[in-house]
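4.2 Preliminary Data

To establish feasibility before requesting continued support, the project team ran the inverse folding procedure on a target of 254 residues. The structure was first converted into the token representation described in Section 3, and no sequence information of any kind was made available to the design step. The complete token record follows.
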């Protein structure tokens, strides 16, 4: 065999070995990334964001081009209130998978936590306008809340109306619209919306608590007490449960 043929032969041999090694390494990294991702998810479900963060960091190290890993890591950072790190990884996920509406929605929720109302509204709007997003009513409600916190009440109300039109049984849209109307001193309409929210979601404790407050303002004492009691029954050890219990005690003294 000529020298040239020998050279070509050995280049092919080394090339094949190199490809096989690279393929095996990629497969190993993928497997390790998936293991750490699943562990991270289990820690999140167990309400342990610190351990989840540790696992997701390793998942990203093994699979840096997997957008789901970056989103999971961003969620862990968000729970740890490390907002700038969370933002960085949400943006990386969107860079890897441009226009993914669930990522846009998640990033918008982060901007709510950060008090970046306009950025939140913009990303919620992008998610809501995406035809492949399964829950546009959720994004429209988030957009409405962001606009409300920004101080644009009319645009907020319009967004809540869109959400209710898209999904008439989505209780949070009624709850947050009632919050806007309450701030505008339109208590009767706010009360009706809260009653509808509770009708749609009887275990919606925030809606029940706020309904009790408005009923109390309307001097509908017995109805208010019933709602406060429902809150206590649903979440007895929570902050809202404790507040509701205090109201019940004060009402009994009247």
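Position-by-position output of the design step:
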């Amino acid at each position: 065999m000529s020298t040239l043929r020998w050279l070509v032969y050995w280049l092919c041999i080394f090339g094949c070995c190199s490809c096989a090694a690279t393929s095996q390494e990629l497969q190993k990294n993928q497997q390790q990334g998936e293991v750490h991702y699943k562990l991270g998810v289990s820690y999140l479900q167990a309400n342990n964001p610190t351990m989840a963060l540790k696992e997701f960091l390793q998942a990203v190290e093994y699979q840096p081009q997997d957008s789901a890993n970056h989103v999971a890591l961003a969620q862990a950072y968000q729970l740890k209130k490390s907002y700038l790190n969370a933002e960085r990884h949400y943006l990386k996920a969107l860079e890897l998978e441009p226009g993914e509406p669930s990522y846009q929605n998640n990033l918008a929720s982060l901007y709510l936590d950060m008090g970046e109302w306009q950025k939140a509204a913009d990303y919620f709007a992008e998610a809501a306008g995406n035809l492949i997003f399964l829950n546009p009513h959720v994004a429209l409600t988030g957009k409405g809340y962001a606009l409300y916190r920004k101080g644009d009440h009319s645009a907020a109300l319009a967004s809540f109306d869109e959400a209710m039109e898209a999904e008439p049984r989505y209780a949070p849209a009624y709850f947050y619209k009632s919050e806007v109307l309450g701030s505008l001193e339109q208590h009767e309409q706010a009360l009706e919306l809260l009653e509808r929210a509770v009708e749609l979601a009887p275990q919606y404790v925030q809606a029940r608590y706020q309904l009790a407050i408005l009923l109390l303002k309307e001097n509908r004492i017995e109805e208010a007490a019933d709602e406060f009691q429902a809150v206590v029954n649903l979440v007895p050890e929570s902050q809202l449960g404790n507040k509701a219990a205090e109201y019940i005690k004060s009402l009994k003294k009247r």
